[in-house]
Amino acid sequence: MSFVQEFKSFALKGNVMDLAVGVIIGAAFGKIVDSLVADMIMPLVSLVIGGLDFANYYLPLAGQAANLPLAEAKKLGAVFAYGSFVTVALNFFILALVIFVMVRQINRLKASQPTQVAPEPAPITPEDVLLLREIRDSLKNKG
Q1: pTM to 2 decimal places
Q2: What torsion do the CA atoms of 107, 113, 115, 116 make, to the nearest 10 degrees?
Q3: Contacting residues for 79 by C-beta, under 8 A, at least 6 apart
Q4: How far apart are CA 143 and CA 141, in angstroms?
Q5: pLDDT, position 52
Q6: How far is it, in rounded angstroms, from Cα 21 to Cα 110?
């Protein structure tokens, strides 16, 4: 089998396609969660802690003024941007929580659906038994 044929066989298997769809949907879902955190949750958090943009919280490491926006402070030198880290960590926490709730609901739906059990196939009678039955039936008919 050539490399191209082998790759085609691998790439078109159901598991690979399912994985590709999952990655694409996951990336899109990640963008939704990023927007949720950046545009809805973090403004509320920053309102509670003082009305500032939480992503702009940093400690200057190169002598910058502490009141500069993060982008300008980074242009002037190194900064310890803990606000960005907290935002990303909160983003991860929310994403993990949403996925946990989704998986939990899917598992509940699966558990509530009755599983369909296929009927057992009739046992296959061996050939010698069938032959003996034919002989028996023919002897009954003759006698």
Answers
A1: 0.51
A2: -140
A3: 58, 59, 60, 61, 62, 64, 70, 73
A4: 6
A5: 57
A6: 21
**Per-residue pLDDT reduced to its tens digit, 63-121:** 888 788 888 888 988 988 888 888 778 778 877 887 888 889 888 888 887 767 777 88
Q: Three-state SS for 59?
A: strand
* C-alpha separations of 54 from 49, 60, 82, 94, 136 in Å: 9, 15, 9, 17, 91
Query: What distance in Å separates the CA atoms of residue 117 and residue 99, rounded to the nearest whole number?
Result: 30
Q: How far apart are the C-alpha atoms of 77 and 60, rounded to whole Å? A: 8
Length of the chain: 143
Rounded distance, CA 51 to CA 68, Å?
16
Proportion of the chain above pLDDT 90, given as a percent: 3
Tell me the C-alpha distance between 40 and 87, whole Å: 12
